[in-house]
Automatic annotation (TrEMBL):
Residues 22-82 form the HTH tetR-type domain. It comes from Mangrovimicrobium sediminis. This is TetR/AcrR family transcriptional regulator. Signal peptide: none annotated. Residues 45-64 bind DNA. The keyword Transcription regulation applies.
Length: 214
């Protein structure tokens, strides 16, 4: 028996153009992030968001069709910040033309991504929502594909290896494993995040060792 997956509209209906509309849009996102912290994923609703933002529910619906779309917008912003931080860090190694140096400094970028999440308002709650809410999981996958594509291109250029299926899979596995390390550091407050990052980076070094001389 096949179970149909209910499609949920996730994209904002329109982006604000005028200053007043932008303030309303931003107030909705700010209110949603506050409520994610206060009431959690399950209890947040468009009614609560609209009330906190000081707008009517119909006004909220001019921009977002449902609560998932609001959280999707928050998640998109967080994923973009993560990927931008990763891309900027990676670009810094291009001129050095040393792929192994990237891997030796893997703990730095793991900590960087960790800090992006921790420093974003409601970052941890948004991060958890993208994992817990089925309609939002694709956003995480898109972000990881983008990061893996950037890593594969970098490794191909710097290590002078072909951009083939093996490199593509190595890069995607690296991104997903790195995300798992960051998740571990975020979720378990009994662990020292820096220790987790360094152990995770060492694991990734070993993963790449047969492929690139370290």
């Amino acid at each position: 028996m096949t179970t149909a997956v209910r499609q949920v509209e996730l994209l904002a209906k329109q982006r604000p153009r005028q200053a007043r509309a932008k303030r309303t849009y931003d107030a909705i996102l700010t209110s949603a992030s506050e409520l994610l912290v206060e009431v959690g994923i399950e209890r947040i609703s468009t009614n609560l968001i609209a009330e906190r933002a000081g707008v009517t529910v119909p006004a909220l619906y001019r921009y977002f069709p449902n609560k998932y779309a609001v959280i999707h917008a928050l998640g998109t912003r967080l994923m973009q910040k993560q990927n931008a931080a990763f891309a900027t860090w990676l670009t810094g190694f291009l001129e050095r033309e040393n792929a192994s140096e990237v891997l030796y400094h893997g703990h730095v970028v793991l900590r960087l991504i960790y800090d992006v999440i921790r420093n974003e308002p409601a970052g941890i709650e948004i991060f958890n929502a993208l994992r817990a809410m089925a309609p939002l999981r694709e956003l995480r996958l898109v972000s990881r594909r983008e990061a893996a594509d950037g890593l594969a291109n970098f490794m191909s250029e710097v290590a002078r290896v072909p951009r083939d299926e093996t490199l593509t899979m190595h890069s995607r596995m690296t991104v997903d494993l790195a995300c798992g390390v960051v998740e571990m550091a975020i979720e378990d407050n009994q662990l020292d995040p820096d220790v987790v990052m360094r152990e995770g980076a060492r694991m990734l070094q070993e993963y790449w060792r047969p492929y690139i001389r370290l």
